[in-house]
């Protein structure tokens, strides 16, 4: 009787790739579940089903629900920080750099409603998890430094006011997009217009740019920023 061929060992590189893919699937499933149900309503069973893995595998990689939620939050912030870094603001003229940051922030919120949902849920919990995650604050430090340098460059050219606080500036940029996206449904009913319509979104994005530049510039900004939503 012929012997069965011995099973071949899985190469370490393949195992690492499979593990990375599994962890990525679990993170994506967790993100969707936490965004849809909030932390309290999210269930490990549902996350495992979304990721097409068993619970044992989920616990193996992330430990428990709390740890997975922390990982989801960290990845969410890393993603937006990576997008901001890719803008290469230091390589652009000050006015152009600010406009690019405002448009990126608005579009990131618009295109990733799960991010808005995660932040809203964490705020409803009074930052229960983020307050014990110093790595989140660490992700913001380079952005604040970059904004401070950008403001200084603009001031040296006589374009920007010198009394701008970079933290307040970023909070304002984020707020202009965050409120619109998070409240779009109710605002559409109140004002009897579809604020998700493409022309309304483009108008809002331009308005955000205009408001930020009017705050920064020593002279009024042009009435209509040239860049449009693509």
Automatic annotation (TrEMBL):
Transmembrane found in the keyword field: yes
Low complexity bias (residue ranges): 1-12
InterPro entries named among the record's database cross-references: Homeodomain-like_sf (IPR009057), HTH-type_TetR-like_transc_reg (IPR050109), HTH_TetR (IPR001647), NicS_C (IPR041474), Tet_transcr_reg_TetR-rel_C_sf (IPR036271)
Transmembrane segments: 169-191
Location of region: Disordered: 1-22
One matching Pfam family: TetR_N
DNA-binding region extent: 43-62
GO MF term list: DNA binding
Domain of life: Bacteria
HTH tetR-type domain span: 20-80
SUPFAM superfamilies cross-referenced by the UniProt entry: Homeodomain-like (SSF46689), Tetracyclin repressor-like, C-terminal domain (SSF48498)
Keywords (A to Z) from UniProt: DNA-binding, Membrane, Transmembrane, Transmembrane helix
Name of this chain's protein: TetR family transcriptional regulator
Organism: Pelagibacterium lentulum
């Amino acid at each position: 009787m012929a012997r069965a061929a011995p099973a071949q060992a899985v190469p370490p590189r393949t195992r690492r790739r499979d593990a990375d893919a599994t962890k990525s699937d679990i993170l994506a499933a967790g993100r969707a579940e936490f965004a849809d149900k909030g932390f309290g309503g999210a269930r490990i069973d549902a996350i495992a089903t979304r990721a097409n893995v068993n619970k044992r595998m989920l616990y193996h990689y992330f430990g428990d629900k709390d740890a997975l939620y922390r990982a989801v939050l960290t990845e969410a912030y890393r993603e937006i920080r990576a997008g901001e870094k890719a803008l290469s603001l230091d390589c652009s003229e000050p006015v152009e750099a600010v406009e690019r940051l405002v448009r990126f922030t608005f579009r990131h919120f618009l295109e990733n409603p799960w991010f808005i949902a995660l932040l809203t849920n964490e705020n409803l919990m009074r930052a229960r998890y983020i307050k014990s995650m110093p790595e989140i604050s660490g992700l913001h430090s380079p952005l604040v430094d970059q904004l401070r340098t950008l403001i200084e460059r603009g001031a040296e050219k006589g374009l920007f006011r010198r009394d701008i606080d970079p933290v307040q500036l970023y909070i304002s940029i984020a707020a202009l997009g965050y409120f619109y996206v998070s409240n779009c449904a109710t605002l559409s009913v109140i004002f009897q217009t579809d604020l998700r319509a493409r022309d309304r979104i483009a108008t809002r994005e331009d308005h955000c740019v205009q408001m930020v530049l009017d705050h920064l510039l020593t002279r009024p900004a042009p009435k209509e920023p040239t860049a449009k939503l693509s």
